Amino acid sequence: ALPERNRKEESTFEIVYLANLQPSKGIEDVIQAMILLKSKTGLAFHLTVAGAWRNEQTRKIISGWIEQYALPVTVLTPDKAGNKFQHLVNADAFVFTPREPEGHPWVIVEAMACGLPVISTDRGAITESVIDGRNGFIVQASSPDQICEKLLLLMSDRELRKKMGQESRLLYEANFTEERMVENLVEVFNKIIGQNHRS
After folding, report:
1. Would you say residue 1 has pLDDT above 90?
2. What is the C-alpha separation between 154 and 13, in angstroms, rounded?
3. Radius of gyration (Cα) for the chain, nearest Å?
4. Residue 16: enclosing H or E segment and its boundaries?
5. Cα 133 off chain centre by
6. How far apart are CA 120 and CA 30, in angstroms?
7. Could you tell me which of 93, 94, 92, 97 has the C-alpha nearest to residue 139?
8. Please, which residues bridge with residue 53 across strands?
9. pLDDT digits over 141-150, tens only?
10. How far from 41 is each of 37, 152, 176, CA to CA, in Å?
11. How confident is the model at residue 33 (pLDDT cuts 50, 70, 90)?
12. What SS3 state is found at 154?
């Protein structure tokens, strides 16, 4: 069962990014999107970043930008992150925008289970779960301006946010629950076994 939503400040738009903190996972693009977002809106927002730093250079760059632009960003390393589902349940949007190929990132499925609109990139199998315009947005890799644009859209349109969040949850229930995944695997195995018997 998912934890209860537990938010101090409902008027602040909460964004979550969960991944290893390295350039290939798009962390630099997300932070640059926050710089743009701060310059383009007077609305209150906050980004929670949770993950492990993969190198010191990236940590210095990201920390430098957060400080230089006084960004409303909290970075939590794994020892401080606590229950990731609590961060997801408390959020209004999930952002994970890798620059390089991925498989099918499970963290996107977790965000969908929590009923969040997802902003991501067309890397690996991501577009099988993030349907552009339906339960989130697909942006180009290395495009902070597009991330910012989609976040502004979600921030300014509560109904869109709610609709996309509900779609995420429906897509999760239709495709990614344990029961559904077992059914899908059985179906695939039976199909392969059937083909082998015929050949």
Report:
1. no
2. 9
3. 18
4. strand 13-18
5. 15
6. 10
7. 97
8. 21
9. 999 999 999 9
10. 6, 8, 35
11. very high
12. helix
SS3 string of 36-79? HHHHHCCCCEEEEEECCECCHHHHHHHHHHHHHCCCCEEEECHH
Please give the structure tokens belonging to residue 30: 């997300």
Q: What is the Cα–Cα distance from 197 to 65, expressed in whole angstroms? A: 60
DSSP code of residue 24: G
Specify the amino acid at residue 6. Answer: N
Q: Which amino acid is at 152?
A: L
Please choose, from the candidates 24, 67, 18, the residue with its C-alpha nearest in 3D space to the C-alpha of residue 47: 18
* Structure-block tokens of residue 143: 């495009």
Q: Do residues 121 and 139 lie in contact, with contact meaning Cβ atoms separated by under 8 Å?
A: yes
- Looking at residue 132, its amino acid is D
Taking alpha carbons only, the member of 141, 159, 150 closest to residue 26 is: 141
Q: What is the pLDDT of residues 102-114, one digit of tens each?
A: 988 999 999 999 9
